[in-house]
Amino acid sequence: MKTTTIYVCQGCGYHSPKWLGKCPDCGAWNSFTEEVRGREKGGRLAPAAGVKAVPLCEVAGETEERLSCGISEFDRVLGGGLVAGSLVLIGGDPGIGKSTILLQVMNHLAESAGPALYVSGEESARQTRLRAERLDIRAPKLLVLAETSLETILGQIAELSPRAVVIDSIQTMFTAGLESAPGSVSQVRECAGKLMVAAKRSGIPTFIVGHVTKDGALAGPRVLEHMVDTVLYFEGDQGHAFRILRAVKNRFGSTNEIGVFEMKEGGLREVANPSALFLSERPVGVSGSAVVTTIEGSRPLLVELQALVTPSSLGVPRRTTLGVDHNRLALLVAVLDKKVGLHLSGSDIFLNAAGGARLNEPAADLGMVTALASSHLDKVIDPQTVIIGEVGLAGEVRAITQPETRVREAAKLGFTRAVIPAGSLTQVSPLAGMEVIGVRSVEEALERLL
């Protein structure tokens, strides 16, 4: 066997025949490590026998059966359950609950569908047992394997034929075909590739746990996210009990769905009504607080927006946001200044989506503007009012999608008034106990609300 020495960037996987101080692809410094690779002479792959292309219309179009994970919020994010042979990558900060939720999922699958295999490369079998006892997990068909050798793991999968497999984590796995250390770009890519082939051939759905970098991105080569069928991110602050599971890639479902969980002593518990959870500690009679409705996938969520506007003693006033786009805040402050006459350029502004929620859609614009004006003028918004609408640069309030779904969700939680764009009024049916007000501009909305 002929061996060659190459240098691989651990940030992006760029290859170089010599060591470089700075990666020319991703710009990372001191990220190259030496790897020795072997290549057998005459190692060209022979064409597979009996493989040929077929017309797409002749491919069987059977409906794919899905395997329920036993947790409805988890099934929602996956698109309705696990698809046979799918490869699911789940990432998140350390301690956020990745291993906990997967252990709970595997426990249900072991009880309802058959044997399930949990492979731990970070904990011993005894440590996994202690964690399972804390979560009250006792399924007799839940199998645990403390191993990091990929060849051994694949052998166990072939021997046991489990209904589902968890690899925790991909950064601890290694294959004997490469001499590089576990967690390196080459090892992660090669191990993920072999697991993908095994999942597709056997039809066994496989979960892969991935570490994240300090920037919040999944560690390892970018190709890892392209190889898998689904990429899930666990989000949340360890200081809060709430966790949000979000799909950023899904070949078998929507990428807009989220699942909301609450961390308790016995593990993660799904939250059936996230809106009530986000509003549970909302202060009453305080300026700068507004409630908006956002759509996450097919689910409407009510979220409280909190704004604090104070005179600044700095030459450049501070602009701080949590859960809200910083550039969107700058745009809305400019609209308030130019179109309404509220001069906030000399004030420090802090804007927060309470409960760790993240607002990305423009339908929350009117709620942000109202919260800012409320804090600046020190006037309280009616606590039974929900505010929805997109704000344009001319100060107009633009129509939004699914207005009736948003208003109905607010009515379920006891809100009695909704301020929405005038262009969306015709799409909302009359609701008992709910007053729906249409506005055409930011100035008109502030006159109604403040």
UniProtKB/TrEMBL annotation:
Keyword list, A-Z: ATP-binding, DNA damage, DNA repair, DNA-binding, Hydrolase, Metal-binding, Nucleotide-binding, Stress response, Zinc, Zinc-finger
Residue span, RecA family profile domain: 63-212
Highest taxon of the lineage: Bacteria
Entries under Pfam families matching the protein: AAA_25 (PF13481), Zn_ribbon_LapB (PF18073)
Any one cellular-component term (Gene Ontology): cytosol
Hydrolase is among the record's keywords: yes
Database matches in CDD domains: RadA_SMS_N
SUPFAM superfamilies named in the record: P-loop containing nucleoside triphosphate hydrolases, Ribosomal protein S5 domain 2-like
Stored InterPro entries: AAA+_ATPase, DNA_repair_RadA, P-loop_NTPase, RecA_ATP-bd, Ribosomal_Su5_D2-typ_SF, Ribsml_uS5_D2-typ_fold_subgr, Rubredoxin_2
Single GO MF annotation: hydrolase activity
Region of interest (Lon-protease-like), residue spans: 348-450
Motif RadA KNRFG motif: positions: 249-253
Binding site for ATP: G92, D93, P94, G95, I96, G97, K98, S99
GO annotation, biological process: recombinational repair
Zinc in keyword set: yes
NCBIfam families: sms (TIGR00416)
Domain notes: The middle region has homology to RecA with ATPase motifs including the RadA KNRFG motif, while the C-terminus is homologous to Lon protease.
Family the UniProt entry places it in: Belongs to the RecA family. RadA subfamily.
PANTHER family tied to this protein: DNA REPAIR PROTEIN RADA, DNA REPAIR PROTEIN RADA-LIKE PROTEIN
HAMAP family given in the database record: RadA_bact (MF_01498)
Entry function: DNA-dependent ATPase involved in processing of recombination intermediates, plays a role in repairing DNA breaks. Stimulates the branch migration of RecA-mediated strand transfer reactions, allowing the 3' invading strand to extend heteroduplex DNA faster. Binds ssDNA in the presence of ADP but not other nucleotides, has ATPase activity that is stimulated by ssDNA and various branched DNA structures, but inhibited by SSB. Does not have RecA's homology-searching function. Plays a role in repairing double-strand DNA breaks, probably involving stabilizing or processing branched DNA or blocked replication forks.
Record's protein name: DNA repair protein RadA
